[in-house]
Design a protein that fits this description.
The protein is an all-alpha fold. The protein has one domain: Growth Hormone, Chain: A (Up-down Bundle), CATH 1.20.1250.20. It has 21 helices and 2 strands. A two-stranded antiparallel sheet has the order 1-2. Helix 2 crosses helix 7 and helix 2 runs antiparallel to helix 8. The longest helix has about 35 residues. The chain is globular. The relative contact order is 0.16.
Length: about 500
């Protein structure tokens, strides 16, 4: 009977609820991207407000503290993925799904509130609340992916789960647009004068960055009720809890499936095993350990590259911006956000769209391997052309184009497939736990990549042994290219390639 219900879900045509679920499930990922990208212009505003100018240039947040602000959210994400991944399998997806969004909303709001108006208070409270924001976002990863995969049909499951993840692209775009609008409003309203640039921006700037962060909570608030109203996934109810009657009711609550279809679907020639075993058992390691390791390593490699290149943005296009000492704080933040919006529209969202269109045709393994390879080649080209395209603080347009290509293929390939695969490869009673473990491995890679980038951006020496911050960027690109080549090899040998059209229950043993 359990197989009958699952087969009915697998064969169900695409319906309105599938698209509604993309928005509901994707809102946590939307907020994740909003938080990650909005913090870039925000830290520039905070630097000007709370830190004194040096050598005729506006104040900036020290590198170590900028790294702490980024790392605090990533550490929280690791905790959230492991904790809520476990709880999603232990007590159910629905019961903890609203909790993760509530944590995201409260933490995002408090990030903007950030107790105190001195540098130490602001940075400390920002790190504190961003840690809990990361916990909520981390919990949202496995739950959103698995909920969508368990409601999806077999034919378009990859595209539906990728659609959830693509909400990150819109979070990036909206964060940039919000920052631009807020900065422009405050720029117009602020008094003009000599002190508009140095030494400090007007007091209103302290309000501007808080508003930018707080606005990110609004979309999540609007989807909170919808999350609470979602039923438990029929697959979890049937396979993990063994309640067939309730699973049939839950399937009919959201999908147009006739009751006769649920009870008369032809059952394939295999059954769901009734014996139980734990995630730390030898049987689990023998049956699923290789796939868990493959997903975890792929995600780790991807996030080392993805988060490094994300934080690389403010350096890669700084040559196209006016020197910070010549513009106001609002103008500098506006220009940074503008470039983020351009990259979102030209590279990030198209990359996600390409993944949605190809993932169920070419397959997860093919687009992951292909994209890792193209990323490696493009990064290597950036290394080889570094000296000719990056001269005297000027970066050639072709260099920006290559940088955009890295983002496009990251989102078209491994950044999406690493989210999709763990939601397909494991039994229902382990699914969110395994997804959380793989995601946590990825965020450990993100911590390494982002902290390493911050460190390298402040080190380096010229031919005369004079310290030149940022001169190590060429070597960062070499390292990232090497990581992508490792990703190609790892994907070829270890990533499963048979998930296209595979019922989730094929791995239910």
């Amino acid at each position: 009977m359990a197989i009958s219900v699952m087969r009915a879900l697998d064969k169900a045509a695409l319906q309105l609820y599938h698209y509604v679920a993309i928005v509901i499930a994707g809102m946590g990922l939307f907020t994740d991207a909003y938080s990650l990208f909005s913090i870039v212009p925000v830290t520039y505003l905070i630097g000007r407000i709370y830190y004194n100018p040096q050598d005729g240039k506006p104040g900036t947040v020290p590198t170590a503290l900028r790294a702490a602000v980024v790392a605090s959210a990533l550490v929280g994400t690791v905790v959230g993925q492991l904790l809520f991944g476990f709880l999603g399998d232990r007590i159910g997806r629905k019961k903890v799904y609203g909790v993760t969004l509530l944590i995201i909303v409260l933490s995002s709001f408090n990030c903007g509130f950030s107790i105190g108006r001195t540098a130490n208070y602001v940075i400390s409270s920002l790190c504190f609340f961003r840690f809990f924001l990361g916990v909520g976002i981390g919990g949202d990863y496995p739950l959103s992916a698995v909920i969508m995969s368990e409601f999806a049909n077999t034919e378009r499951r990859g595209a539906l789960v990728a659609g959830v993840f693509s909400m990150q692209g819109f979070g990036i775009l909206v964060s940039a647009l919000v920052a631009m609008v807020v900065c422009r409003i405050f720029e117009v309203a602020q008094p003009s004068g000599e002190n508009a640039v140095l030494p400090h921006p007007p007091p209103s700037a302290d309000l501007a960055w808080r508003i930018i962060l707080m606005i990110g909570t609004i979309p999540a608030i609007f989807t909170f009720y919808s999350r609470m109203a979602m039923p438990e996934t029929p697959r979890y109810t049937a396979l993990a809890q063994g309640d067939m009657e309730r699973a049939m009711v839950e399937a009919r609550m959201v999908l147009d499936i006739d009751i006769d279809e649920l009870t008369n679907v032809t059952t394939p020639g295999r059954s769901i095993p009734s014996d139980e075993y734990g995630i730390f058992s030898k049987r689990f390691l023998k049956r699923h350990g290789a796939n868990l390791a493959a997903c975890s390593i792929s995600w780790f490699l991807l996030d080392v590259v993805f988060y490094s290149t994300t934080l690389f943005q403010s350096w890669i296009y700084k040559s196209a911006l006016k020197p910070p000492e010549h513009v106001t704080a609002f103008t500098e933040a506006f220009n940074l956000a503008k470039f983020q919006a351009i990259f979102a529209v030209t590279a990030i969202i198209p990359g996600y769209s390409a993944a949605i269109m190809t993932i169920d045709h070419l397959g997860r393994r093919v687009i992951q391997m292909m994209s890792f390879l193209i990323m490696a080649i493009v990064l290597l080209c950036m290394v080889l052309s570094y000296n000719t395209m990056v001269q005297d603080n000027y970066i050639h347009f072709n260099y920006l184009f290559m940088y955009a290509m890295v983002f496009f293929f990251a989102n078209c390939g491994p950044n999406t497939t690493t989210f999709v695969l763990p939601a397909e490869l494991f039994p229902a009673r382990f699914r969110t736990t395994c997804h959380g473990i793989a995601g946590a491995a990825g965020k450990i890679g993100a911590i390494i990549g982002s902290i390493g980038l911050f460190w390298c951006s402040e080190t380096g020496y010229d031919d005369r042994h004079n310290r030149v911050p940022g001169s190590c960027m060429k070597y960062i690109l070499i390292g990232l290219s090497a990581v992508c080549f490792v990703g190609v090899v790892h994907t070829y040998y270890f990533t499963p390639g048979w998930t296209i059209g595979m019922p989730l229950e094929e791995r239910e043993d």
